[in-house]
Design brief:
The structure is a homodimer of 387-residue chains. Chain A is α/β, with parallel strands linked by helices and 387 residues long. Chain A folds into 2 domains: 9-207 and 324-381, Rossmann fold (3-Layer(aba) Sandwich), CATH 3.40.50; 234-316, formyl-coa transferase, domain 3 (2-Layer Sandwich), CATH 3.30.1540. Chain A is built from 16 helices and 15 strands. In chain A, helix 1 (18-28) packs across helix 7 (166-189) and helix 7 (166-189) crosses helix 8 (199-205). The first copy, chain A, is elongated and about 80 Å long. The mean pLDDT of chain A is 94. Chains A and B meet through strand 3, helix 2, helix 6, helix 7 and strand 8 of A and strand 3, helix 2, helix 6, helix 7 and strand 8 of B. Strand 14 of chain A pairs antiparallel with strand 8 (194-198) of chain B. Chains A, B: GO terms for molecular function: CoA-transferase activity.
Chain lengths: 387, 387
C-alpha cells in the first residue's frame, strides 16, 4: 500500500532545526522533500559538529531522505527554476523571519493568488502576528519565556533548560500537524492554506499542568527536580551505580515497595501511611529509601521492584538508550545508508507506527549540497500530466 | 470554510494525559470527539487537584469541547450502544495496556475485519510490540529511560525531570500526527489503519542532537544546566530581580554584548576573543557578566540588550506567561465557556494557526461525566445517510 503522503511534493526552504524536523517527518510519511539551500554554504547545520568524514552528524540526523538543490532566490536564473518547482509543489515550508518571503515575492498572499492549491507552512520564533512578530528567537529564548524553564530544575535552584531542544522540536511537530490538517482540508475544498507556527506558542501548548494550576489558583508552580510535585515517593533514587526511578502512585504500591526494601514498618507509621503525609516529608523518605537502595546496583533494584509490582525504570544516558532492546525492537534507531563511501550515521526512527506504513532500520542518506540539481531539472522537464 | 476535521467522529476511550491531549487537538481541528468513560468515576483526572466548584482544572484544560457518555464495555446494554457508535465512527482512540481491547472483543484485528474504514489509534508506555509491550509506564519512567533526564539538570548534578509532562504530551502529539496521516491515506485507499504510539519511542524521536552526537562519537552528552553546550555565552544570567537569557551566537554579537555591559576589553582578550576560548571558561565569563547584570533589574537588561542587537529574553513563570502580550495576541490563552454556572477555567489555545481555521479566545467547557448520554442516543437514532 502507498505511504500516506506518496506523490506529494514539498519545497523545503527551512534550515537548522524546527523546519527540517517537520520535513523529515513528511519524508517518513512518504512525501518527496526537495531541500532548497543557499548556494555555497547550504543549511547552517552542515557546519555543526561532530563530523564523520567531513559530514555533520547533526545535519545527517535531520535531513535524511531529502534531495538538495542550491538556489539563490534573488538571481533570475534560479528564480525561474523555483517558479517551475512551485508549479509542481503541494507544500512550501519556510522558517525565515516574517517579511523575508514577501520581499522575495513569494509571500503567502502572492503565492495563494497564483497557486490556490498550494499549502504554505511557516515556523518562526514568535509567529507572523502580534507585537513581536518580527523578532528572531532561539530555542533557549522560547524555553525561558514560555515557562518550561521555570518548572524544570531543583527546588530553590536556578532555572534549567530542557536538554532536548523542545523549543524547536515541538514547533516543528505542530507544523507537521498543521500541514497534514491542511492537506485534509484541501481534499474537501481544493484550496491551500497558510499554517503559521510560533515557537513561543508551541511552548505554552505543552504545559497543560502548569496552566491549569496557575489558572485556577493564581500561583505558578516551581521546579521539583526529579520528584513528582503531588505524589510521594515518585522520583529518582540513588543506587550504588546510578539512579533508579520509583513511582509509587498509590498506598498499595507504597506497601509493596516497603516490603521489597525491608521498610515494613513504614506503612503503619502515621508520618508515612498516606500520600498526603508522605508529601509533607519527601526528603526524609528519600533518605530512608536511599539508605537501602545505595547498597546494591540499579539492575538489582529494577529486578526486585518489577517482581514486587512497583513501577520502576532506569535513568539511561543516550549510549544506553541506543542499545535498549525495547527501543531497538521498535526500529527506533535507524542507520543511514552509506551510498558506497559515506559514513553510516544513526538517527531516530519514525515513532509513528502504522499498520500499512513500512518501517525499516535503514534510511537513505542526507543529501550533499546541490547534489540533486540535474535530476530535479530533468524531472521538471518531464510531463506533469496526471498530477 | 469548514474546519479540516469537520464531520469526523472520534470515539475516545483514553484517559489521563497522552490520549486526551491528542483528542483535544482533534477537537481544535474540528472533529466531534465522544469521550467514553467508565461509569461512576470517569477519567482519573476528574479527581486531580486543583478544583473550582468541585471540578478539576486539570481535567477541564485537557477535555474541553468533548461530549461524555459513561459506558461499561463489559455490560451487554452498554456494549450495544458502543456497537452503534462504532458504526458511525471514523476513529477509535485507546490508551489501555496492550491486550485489554482484545479481551473486550474490540481489538484492531476484530474491528478492522468488521469495519474496514475505521482508524484505530493506540498510545501506551512501550508500544504494542517488543519484549516489554505489556508493561505500564508513567511519564517519569519514559523520561528517565528515554534519555532526556540524562541531559537535563546541572553539570555533575542529579538527573532532573522536564517540568512539562513531555513523556505523555509528545506521545499524544505523535498520535495526532498518525491519525491525520491515516485519514489522508484513507482518502486514497478507503481503508483504515492502526496507529501504535509508544511513549518511550516518542522520547527518542525528540532528541536529534543527543542521538547525532552519541552515534558519531560514542560519548553520550550530559546535562549543562541552562547553558548551551557548545556556544558561550548562551545561558541564563542573574539580574537583580530574576534571570535574563543572553544568547551570543557569534563573535559580532559577543562584541555588542560587551559594549552594552561595559566589558569593552573582553573581545580583545585572547581568553575571550573566540567562542572556542570562551567555551574553555564559561564559569569565569558568567561571573564577569553577572557582576554587571546583578546591579539592575531584568527589565533594564532586556531593553539594553534588545537595543544593542543581542538576542535576549526573560525567564518567565506561568503567571507571567499567561499575561505575556505576544502570547495573548496569538490567542494562546483561552477561557472555557461557563455554561451559566460553571467556573471559567483557562487552557492553552491552539498553536496551529491556519488561515481558514477560526481561532477565538473561548472554548466550550469540558463535559460533566455522562452529560451527553441522551443526546448521543438521540443522534444514533437519526438517519445516518449522507455520511
Amino acid at each position: 500500500m502507498a505511504k500516506p503522503l506518496a506523490g506529494l511534493v514539498v519545497l523545503d526552504l527551512t534550515h537548522v532545526l524546527a523546519g527540517p524536523f517537520c520535513s523529515t517527518q513528511l519524508v517518513d510519511l512518504g512525501a518527496r522533500v526537495i531541500k532548497i539551500e543557499r548556494p555555497g554554504l547550504g543549511d547552517d547545520t552542515r557546519a555543526f559538529p561532530p563530523f564523520l568524514d567531513g559530514e555533520s552528524a547533526y545535519f545527517a540526523a535531520l535531513n535524511h531522505g531529502k534531495s538538495s538543490i542550491a538556489l539563490n532566490l534573488k538571481a533570475a536564473d534560479d528564480r525561474e527554476i523555483f517558479e517551475r518547482l512551485l508549479q509542481r509543489a503541494d507544500v512550501v515550508l519556510e522558517n525565515y523571519r516574517p517579511g523575508v518571503m514577501e520581499r522575495l515575492g513569494y509571500g503567502w498572499d502572492d503565492l495563494h493568488a497564483r497557486l490556490p492549491r498550494l499549502i504554505y507552512g511557516a515556523v518562526s520564533g514568535f509567529g507572523h502576528t502580534g507585537p513581536e512578530a518580527g523578532k528572531p528567537a532561539y530555542d533557549m529564548v522560547v524555553q525561558a519565556r514560555g515557562g518550561v524553564m521555570s518548572i524544570t530544575g531543583e527546588t530553590g535552584g536556578p532555572p534549567v533548560r530542557v536538554g532536548a531542544s523542545i523549543g524547536d522540536v515541538v514547533a516543528g511537530m505542530y507544523l507537521t500537524q498543521g500541514i497534514l490538517a491542511a492537506l485534509i482540508a484541501r481534499g474537501q475544498s481544493g484550496l491551500g492554506q497558510k499554517v503559521d507556527i510560533s515557537m513561543l506558542d508551541a511552548q505554552l501548548a505543552i504545559q497543560e499542568h502548569a496552566i491549569a494550576i496557575t489558572g485556577a489558583t493564581g500561583v505558578p508552580p516551581g521546579p521539583t527536580g526529579a520528584r513528582h510535585p503531588t505524589i510521594t515517593p515518585f522520583a529518582t533514587y540513588r543506587a550504588r551505580d546510578g539512579f533508579v526511578v520509583i513511582a509509587a502512585g498509590n498506598d498499595a504500591i507504597f506497601a509493596r515497595l516497603c516490603a521489597a526494601l525491608g521498610l515494613d514498618h513504614l506503612p503503619d507509621d502515621p508520618d508515612y501511611a498516606t500520600n498526603t503525609a508522605r508529601c509533607q516529608r519527601p526528603d526524609l523518605l528519600k533518605r530512608l529509601i536511599e539508605t537501602i537502595t545505595l547498597t546494591r546496583d540499579v539492575d538489582h533494584w529494577i529486578a526486585v521492584l518489577e517482581h514486587a509490582g512497583v513501577p520502576t525504570g532506569r535513568v539511561q544516558n543516550m549510549a544506553q538508550v541506543l542499545r535498549d532492546p525495547q527501543i531497538l525492537s521498535r526500529n527506533m534507531v535507524v542507520t543511514l545508508q552509506t551510498d558506497g563511501d559515506r559514513p553510516a550515521f544513526v538517527a531516530a526512527g519514525n515513532p509513528i507506527k502504522m499498520s500499512d506504513l513500512p518501517d525499516g532500520t535503514t534510511r537513505p542518506p542526507a543529501p550533499r549540497l546541490d547534489q540533486d540539481r540535474q535530476q530535479i531539472l530533468d524531472w521538471l522537464d518531464t510531463d506533469a500530466t496526471g498530477r
